[in-house]
Amino acid sequence: MQYDPIKRVLGEAFNKTPFLRKLFYNLLDLLLLRTWHIHKELRAWAKGKRQAPVQILDAGSGFGQYSYYLSGMGPNWRILAVDVKDEQIADCANFFQKIGRHNVMFRKDDLVTFQDPQAFDLVLSVDVMEHILEDVEVFRNFHASLRPGGMVLISTPSDQGGSDVHGDDESSFIEEHVRDGYNIQEIQQKLKSAGFSRTEAHYSYGAPGKISWRLSMKYPILMLGASKLFFLILPSYYLIVYPFCLLLNWLDTNGKHPTGTGLIVKAWK
């Protein structure tokens, strides 16, 4: 399925006013299980740093929801958000200017070539690496752009059914993916080959998360892909399924999973 056209429709629907954009971010925070995992990791990383002057790279910023979250975490935090898509960079820059979040700067750039030597304390990459073929080059750029002791935080599909692929004869649910998912040892080895001294990785989207993803994301995306008229049905649909997804998301975020369709990876310079 082509995911970008659906994202474009969502962006158009929620980009009409700053209120609607904030509502959109709040809905993403509630619905997207990956956001639950990323917010948990960011809160842990931020301990003792809330008042410090921190520089962050949002590498593949998309709709800008993580830059929005980060920009409210510390008064002295500065975020550079980069993405390859002109439309999303322009929309985000316009929204952040309107709401007065001047500690975030948006810029069009390609992570395959982007480097800002020793500029950042944290690099955040959420559901980006599965779209980039030249992943080791990107990891090298992340390493070069981090200050000593800096960390990269990555969320990406795993090879245990990531991208909703469960066999060699299946293709990715999201057609824009260039790989179906990372092996947990593979991505750690690639990060070490890029220069990172220490890595940690664990599975997300375990048994509870797989159910939540189907209810909260896969089925609605399939409906919207079939017809935009399903926008009218979605509020009633989520009213029914979301209480179950809320519980499933909490269980997934706070549990340990022997396997899962997602990976949360951290690496330190």
Automatic annotation (TrEMBL):
Gene3D superfamilies: Vaccinia Virus protein VP39. The chain crosses the membrane at residues 219-240. Keywords: Membrane, Methyltransferase, Transferase, Transmembrane, Transmembrane helix. Residues 54-165 form the Methyltransferase domain. GO terms for molecular function: methyltransferase activity. One of its GO terms (biological process) is methylation. Pfam families: Methyltransf_31. This is Class I SAM-dependent methyltransferase.
